[in-house]
Amino acid sequence: MRPDTPRDPLAGPDSGPESPYPIRLSGPVIKGFGRGSKENTVRSVEIHILPHLSLQSSPSASPLSSTPTTPDPTSSPGDNSASKPPHTRHHFHHFPDFYGTPLNLLILGYIRPEYDYVSLEALVEDIRVDCEVAKRSLARRKYICFIQEGGDVDDEGTKEARKWLRTF
After folding, report:
1. In which residue ranges is the amino acid composition biased (Low complexity) (predicted)?
2. Residue 46 appears among annotated catalytic residues
3. What is the pTM of this model?
4. Considering the domain 23-165 in this protein, what is its CATH number?
5. Distance (Å, rounded) from C-alpha 113 to C-alpha 137?
6. Predicted confidence (pLDDT) per residue in 11-36, tens digit
7. CA 7 – CA 71 distance, rounded (Å)
8. Residue ranges per domain, the chain?
9. b or e along 134-164 (b: 16 or more beta carbons within 10 Å of the residue's beta carbon)?
10. Strand partners for 102
């Protein structure tokens, strides 16, 4: 059950991602159970990940932003009772279905563990807070450099990560 305490408004240190981040995930978009947008009104995208990888809820970047300066989504790996656990990415923009499309994700930090919720409404509210935490976190100088070019933190590592992120 989720603790009854206020949520942190940011994830990760202001100094930027710390080991083991950034983590790269890549794979085709898979069909889930349709619960994301139908049951809890939170649109999501799923890709398969390694079964032993445990990231919980994380701020992540992807090339699906409507503009290159828009910090994008939060993501949460989970077991949906399929043969392999998917990685679910909650996105802030609305797109038509695009199953099978290759997707690169760059996980830049950790927001919170998974919880059991007393109601669907409590789950949806926490996912919405996750999205806001991710937006604020990714807007910081040492994180946004993974999404947009320029700035004094645009070193070779971030340039290479940004290039990979946009490669399909």
Report:
1. 56-77
2. yes
3. 0.71
4. 2.40.30.30
5. 17
6. 999 999 999 999 888 888 887 666 55
7. 20
8. 23-165
9. bbebbebebbbbbbbeeeeeeeeebeebbee
10. 28
